[in-house]
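Reopening closed ticket. The problem is back. First fold of the pair:
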Amino acid sequence: MQNLIEFFENETNKKINIFKYSNQKLKLNQKLVSFNNEIYIIETHEKFSISNPSGYFYIISQQNLDFENLKRVLDNLYDDIEIFEYEKFVLLNSSSELDINLSTPEIIESETYTNTLIAYIGKINTIETFNTRISIFKDVIPFLNNSSSSTKFINLNDLTIHKAITLINSEKSFYSLIDFQSIKTMDKNLLHTGISFIENDLNISKTSSYLFLHRNTLIYRLEKIKEILGLDIKTFKDAFIFYISIKSYFISKL
């Protein structure tokens, strides 16, 4: 079978996948063929050229990556996509923006049984932009995996924030402004609550629903943060300081 795939790829100059047909709906780039009394799907893709990227790109990072299994899940979720292994990640490429959101990693995890992080790195048409955004993602992923945030889907704005924080932390004098000792004494659930409150737009109701917390419990925790750190994160300025401080604390632990 591998020899047949290589033959078709050489003849068509396209990436070829061949797999057994199991009554699934065919996509535009798929055709049925009969071989040795079995029915197969031949799927064709334009060969991915790292020197000439084009379209909308997503990076998928999994704790225990099984490429073929992940590809199967993604093919079932989306039409007309290109899926590639790239270093230790998986790249998802499409000619249009996909309906990928905060719930998508959980759907994938339910099928692949491994932790999943997805980053949308935008519409890319040059190798320079591609390399820069991949590099930024590599810079921030250790921090994302180690932070108090439970977010498993990030977009360009999130990458911008995380990159800014890593740049701030490269200035060592910044650490003298953070009360790490007080942060160390705080319960991790308290830190997670504060970060979640900020990531849910400083909205009590939205955060309560997100964390499955009673409104009064959330307010109590916010007051506890204020008591320990002297920051009222219901205000933008204090929320900004808290966010950078907690994220910096987790970076310092890497």
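Second fold of the pair, where the issue appears:
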Amino acid sequence: MKRFKNKLLIALAIFLAISLSLFVFSIIYEGEMPKLVENINNSAIGAIFTAIITVFLLLGQTETEEDKERNVKVFEKKSELFNNFIEELWKVWEDRNITLEELSHLLKLVSKDIIPYTKPESAKSILNSLNAIASEVNTQENTANKKHMQSHLYAIINTLSEEIGLGGAIHQDIATELDKLEDSILPYLIGKKYMNEIDERVQEKLGDFLTNSKQENGCLWFQVGNKKNGLWLRVGDINNNGKTYIGYWADFWDYRQYAPYRYAQKGKNKDWLIGDVVYGGFDWNLLRKGESISSESLNHLATEIVDFYKKPVGGTGKTIDEIIKECNS
């Protein structure tokens, strides 16, 4: 469209040049040009001037519309990238733990998707926050440091929100309320993280035998063998006393075949098999409260779970795999 208007403008300029030439000719050689032609030419000059002005106005309007359309598209893309980055921030922070690999991923996104669309001061602010987070990666087991890291995440979100004019921001009073909520959620998230680490350590050694796992009611459950067996190895504190119980469980009504090896045929213990143990080397209250637990302690518990699986069940002299085979044959 713009190209067409430019061509039209050139054509009008040519016509104007011709008309002006005729006009000058009529002045110099007065009376030589027929009066009718002179009148038509004079009218044409006015019309051509009007047309040229109109084309200029249309060109200006077109450029304004194109700029507006381009700005809208840039803003939409900017908003999309910023929102995606904020979502990515929360994905990384979901377990309240940030690794250097995750920081590297965020830095890549900032370089690729954020910096090209932000003002220099905004980009600098975001990078400062990421650097501050990086400096605390190795000390984030400390709850206070986690809150510092979260405040830097808030700062990044505020910067991005301001860039796209969302109007909202995580101000101090809002951050305070979020911290209160965080204090309630954080122990659960940290406990979940610890159980994931225990799960990974056990699966490394027994992944072919403990085929599935889940976290339920504050305990860690491993499925023994295939699903049809209906038998689970459960690790956790069932009495809320901090003790770590390790034992086998199978629903009494659905899996009656394990009756010879159950604690009882009725009552609250009917779903449990004999031979459970209490491991005194791990305080489950620390996990429940989200307090600091060493990697060594997690390793010891994982080793205890593996040993429990390999040893005979109770005083039966049979491993759990032998019992499963016997009861399901």
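Update: turned out to be a display glitch only; the data is intact. Strands lie at 210-216, 219-224, 232-236, 244-249, 277-279. The radius of gyration is 38 Å. Please close again.
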